[in-house]
């Protein structure tokens, strides 16, 4: 079965963004950007892949991206209706208008049911881009976590997962540290 991976950057105090969706405080160095661009090239936005000269590179790990409306909106505000054109894009929203892109699917029904359908299809993995509410709804469906833990304390903001109290255990598989002070932690769900 296809795996759902939640790949997200968080502060030391567990926030993925500031109270007004700020993310510009995360320190990114050239070496760290290179790691993200090579190891996780599938999930780089299409314009980033093109800038790196990898727009036509074959997908190796993911072929689908999931996101909520708030994660999708910044691209729309820049006039980009298909930010991950190399991936099938699934946006969960009851209010988002259909952008008319053949590669972008707007889902207004149960996210869990749609994710279970996606997991049953043949293909590569599914990347959960965010946000906290969607991650909370899909918590029981998340198979893997890739957490970029940045050396920043935000104080308040949007948590990694918005969910009622329900301790969910994952097993640590890999830890790597980088020159920007970021630690990348990879986990798999304990079954």
TrEMBL record:
Q: Which residues form the signal peptide?
A: none
GO molecular function terms here? 5-amino-6-(5-phosphoribosylamino)uracil reductase activity
Where does the record place the Bacterial bifunctional deaminase-reductase C-terminal domain? Answer: 6-183
What Gene Ontology biological process does one annotation of this record name? riboflavin biosynthetic process
One Pfam annotation, family name?
RibD_C
What InterPro entries does the database record attribute to this sequence? DHFR-like_dom_sf, RibDG_C, Riboflavin_Biosynth_HTPR
Q: Which domain of life is it from?
A: Bacteria
Q: What is this protein called?
A: Dihydrofolate reductase
